[in-house]
Amino acid sequence: MKRLLPFVLVVTGLLGTAYAYIAGRLASAPWGWAALAIPFVLIWVVPVFYWTRDRDGEESWLDSAAHQASYLSMAWVSFILVLTLVRDLALLATAVLPLERAHAVLTQAGVPAVLVASLLAMVLGALNALRGPRVEKVMVRVPGLHSGLDGFRIVQISDLHVGRSIRRAYVERTVERARSLAPDLVALTGDMVDGPVERLAPHVAPLAALAEEGRAFFVLGNHDCYSGAAAWIAHWREMGMRVLLNEHAVLGKGAAMLLVGGVVDPAYRARRPEISLGDAPSADFRLLLAHNPKLAPLGARAGFDLQLSGHTHAGQFFPWTLAVRLVHAPHVAGLSREGRMWVYVSAGTGTWGPPVRLGTSPEITLVTLVSA
User: Fold this and answer.
1) Which residues contact 171 (CB under 8 A, 6 or more apart)?
2) Cα–Cα dist 88/81, whole Å
3) pLDDT at res. 8
C-alpha cells in the first residue's frame, strides 16, 4: 500500500480541488455543499478502494453498484466542471463589456442551468453509448492493388470492454451487425475485456461466431493485459481466434495474398512490441493490427500498407474529446497517414468507465480496400 500512497494522494488532491471550485461557485448553503460532495466521494471510492487492492472472485451487487455510480459520477463531474468554467468566463465577459442584463441573467439562472445541462448531457451520453455501435464505413484507396483484393472487406471491432457495463446482450448485437457486413477478415484490435476469463467468458462467447474459417485475428490491448493476458490468449484461441503476438499470418483470396501482422501492447510484460517483415512471404497487401496507435512508426518502418488501431476512444465524451488530441496526435481517430502507411484509429465499439458517449459514437468499422 505504501507504494500506492502517491497515487492516492494525487487522486484525492485533484478531486478535492475540483470539488472546492465547483461547490464554491454553485453552492450557496451547507446542504448544497453536502449534495455536491456525494459524486466526488463516489469517484474517489473506486480508484482508492478498488484499484489499489487485489479483489479475487465474484463481485457482489454492492461492488457493481459502487462502480456504476462512480463511473456515472465521473461523467457528470466532467460536464459540470466544464459548464461551471464556461459560466464563470461568461460572467467575467458580461461584467467587463459591460452587459448588465446578461450578467444579471447569468447570476440568477446560471447555477440551475449548469446543473440541468450537466445532468442532461450525462443522460444523452448514456443513451448514445448503450444503444449499440453504428457501422462506420471507410474506403482505403491503394495504388496498384491486386485485383483479387479490390473490394476486400475488413470488419474492425476494438475497445469493446466487456465488463461491468458491456454485457452479453451488447456483444450479441455487435456480432449480429458485424456478420451482416459479410467481412472477408475480422480484426479485433484489443481491449475486448475488463475482467478475468472465469467471470466474462459467457459474455464474450458470441464473438466465436466471427471466427469461422479462420478469418478472425486478435491482438492484445492494455486492458486485456490487466485482465490476465495468458488466460485470455488461451481462451481466444479456444474460441477460434488467431492471436498474433508480434507475428504475422497469410490469408488468401483467389490469386491474391494478404499478410496480417499483429503486435502486442506495451502493457504486455512477456515481451515488447516489435515486428519485422524480413522473413515474411511475399504478399499483395500488408495489414498490421496494433492496439495503440503510437506504434504506427514501427509499422511504417516495417513496410505495412495499413495499420488498424483503437485505444483512444476518440476521447469518448466531451471534454476528453479535446484532451485526447494532446496525447495521441496525429493518430487520434479516423484515417491518417504515417509515411506511406495508412492508419485507421477506431473510436471504439464499447465504452470504458462511464457508459457515456457525447461527441463520439461507438462503432463497428467496415474497411474496404479499393484500387486507387
Assistant:
1) 160, 162, 203, 204, 205, 206, 207
2) 11
3) 83
Q: What is the CATH number of the domain that holds 229?
A: 3.60.21.10
Residues 48, 8: contact at Cβ < 8 Å? yes
Q: Are 165 and 75 in contact (CB under 8 A)?
A: no
Domain boundary among 99, 130, 161: 130
Give residue 368's pLDDT band: very low, low, confident or very high (50, 70, 90).
Answer: very high
The number of C-alpha atoms within 13 Å of 269 and in the hemisphere containing its C-beta is: 7
CA dist., res. 127 & res. 358, Å (int): 10
Beta bridge partners of 308: 289, 344
Q: What is the pLDDT of residue 7?
A: 80
Residue 21 has pLDDT above 60, yes or no: yes
> Residue 137: beta bridge partners?
366
Q: How far apart are CA 217 and CA 184, in angstroms?
A: 12
Q: Tell me the one-letter amino acid at 295.
A: L
| Eight-state DSSP code of residue 55 | -
Same domain, 323 and 283: yes
- From 80, 97, 130, the end of a domain falls on 130
Q: Using one digit for the tens of pLDDT, what is the confidence trace for 46-65?
A: 888 776 666 555 667 788 88
pLDDT digit string, tens, across residues 334-353: 999 999 999 999 999 999 99
Per the rule left: phi > 0, alpha: psi between -120 and 50, beta: everything else, 228 is left
pLDDT at 5: 77
DSSP letter (8 states) at residue 56: -
User: For position 46, what pLDDT does the model report?
Assistant: 86
Q: How many domains does the chain contain in total?
A: 2
